Description:
alpha/beta; two-stranded parallel ribbon; globular
Amino acid sequence: MSAWLARRGALAVGVDPTPGQLRIAREFQDEFELSFPLLRATGEHVPLRDGAFDLVISEYGAAVWADPYRRIPEAARLLRPGGELVFLGNSALLMMCVPDQDGIPATDRLLRPQFGMHRFEWPDDPTVEFHLGHGDWIRLLRENGFAIEDLIELRPPAGARSDYAFVTNEWARRWPCEEVWRARHQ
């Protein structure tokens, strides 16, 4: 995402907590002759100055693997007034319908409650994910000075293919499997 922005003239900074992802980013910078800072940090604590950015964006990454109750205040701190926060992650509905077992796709049944959604630990994966229901997202964003501009519920187009075992195209054509939030910092 940072490379896409940098090619369009933005002064981008790439942030990731893992050395492996940053190494790959540096390799791509060399391959495509791009140069912008890469910083090892979590979305919950970015050691950059307050109000330094017009845009904070996460396509999965921090949007899924950083605790939103720490990540959203950090994004608010980093943004200038009028700056925009954009993040993409799994939809709340998908998270209520996907089984705990790896490789088994989402069902047409609710398997977990919406109320109290926050921290997801999977039995076959050591990582922790974070997902909230829409009401919790709205409250959290507003408490941190954001006005919600849009919630885009994504749907695959006809003919799209997917290799993801946890959600089929058939499911995703009936219900949103991903959602993009856009919010403006006041």
